[in-house]
Amino acid sequence: MGSEDTSPVLGADAVATVVRAEYGRVVAGLIRRFGDIQLAEDALGEAIVIALERWPRDGVPPNPAGWLTTTASRKALDHLRRERVRDEKYAEAAMLTDDTPPEPTGPVKDDRLRLIFTCCHPALAEPARVALTLRLLGGLTVAEIASAFLVPETTMAQRITRAKAKIATARIPYRVPGPDDVADRLDAVLAVLYLVHNEGYLSRGGESADREDLALEAIRLTRALRSLAGDIGSPPEVDGLLALMLLSQARRPARIDDAGRLVTLDEQDRARWDTGLIDEGHALVRECLRRGAPGPYQIQAAIQAVHTDARDVSLTDWGQVVALYDQLLRLRPSPVVALNRAVALAELDGPQVALAVVDELELTAYAPWHATRADLLRRLGRDDDAGRAYAAAIATTPNPAERAWLASRRDRLGHGWGEGPGTP
Hints:
Layout: H1 12-34, H2 37-58, H3 64-83, H4 87-94, H5 111-119, H6 126-138, H7 142-149, H8 153-169, H9 179-184, H10 186-201, H11 212-226, H12 229-232, H13 236-250, H14 252-255, H15 275-291, H16 296-309, H17 318-331, H18 335-349, H19 351-358, H20 367-379, H21 383-396, H22 400-411
Helix pairs in contact: 1-2, 1-3, 1-5, 2-3, 5-6, 6-8, 6-10, 7-8, 10-11, 10-13, 11-13, 13-15, 13-16, 15-16, 16-17, 17-18, 18-19, 18-20, 19-20, 20-21, 21-22
């Protein structure tokens, strides 16, 4: 299973973090090797159990992904032997025990990107495609994915189970897609990458405010997707999504403080922003504007470009931000977009105007809705109402860092709010 030299021993939580970061890479390779999603997940699950037992005691191997891959491959082969599968399937799997994978062919050269395209097969409904890929690529729990989709956990569990069953019964192959498949599945792939990045930007689980590993993985995969330009004509939405991710990532050094706490846009030290990523993102946005075929990702990137163009929050062109949200609402109407527009509207026309818009939205299960209401109510001097809205936001967000930030905002109101039941 590799070299006996290991890194310093880590606690179980730290080991779990390492495993989670490697999950997508390992499961994608196992699915390519064995051609069976459920087998790959089950085998990796067994390997993870062993890792959680051994690594806190013995230390993490120098190559955690290689260790997990080797261990899971052996577990998968043991399973195939026990199940006495067809001779040809067993023989095929047995030949693949070498840890060095064959050189992939076709336009997609990355296991994880190929996995996304496989899960985005037209035979699967779009919500199922996105949910299944988030589960496999990022190792997200069903609860985390359900939170991202604003649906009950049981609904999401059924969706993922049905997607796996559809792949098995329809015999959807895990294979390298051809250029036509890439073009046909592009919209679904972009949706997956967008949601992977969102999970990295603000994590639905774990103790940290974000998951930088997922955010960086989404950026890497989007760059890989963009490299297919010669085959799919580099649609501008690919550039738009990459620009959106880069401009969001550029703010991370100021968005998370040294203690791991969230820092809002208006309070960020903009001197800490990554100017290299900003320059690259702005160049992509300008290229999108020249092409004149706006789409949702391009517009969101343009909004980020306006924010990152202002070296002080007081210099933000809020009129342009609201206008861009108006355009986004026309292309992709949703209450979440309307909520984000209202945040900008508050800076342009005042909190009373924005609150009237927010109160018309049906997002009571969505923590940012409560947090936005709380901030607007605070600005209007309605501290009691603001305190109750902060408490509702704390109760509906799964992220501990976000809960702590919301509690700190609520506690500034006084009136005993810091002693309430919602305090983390």
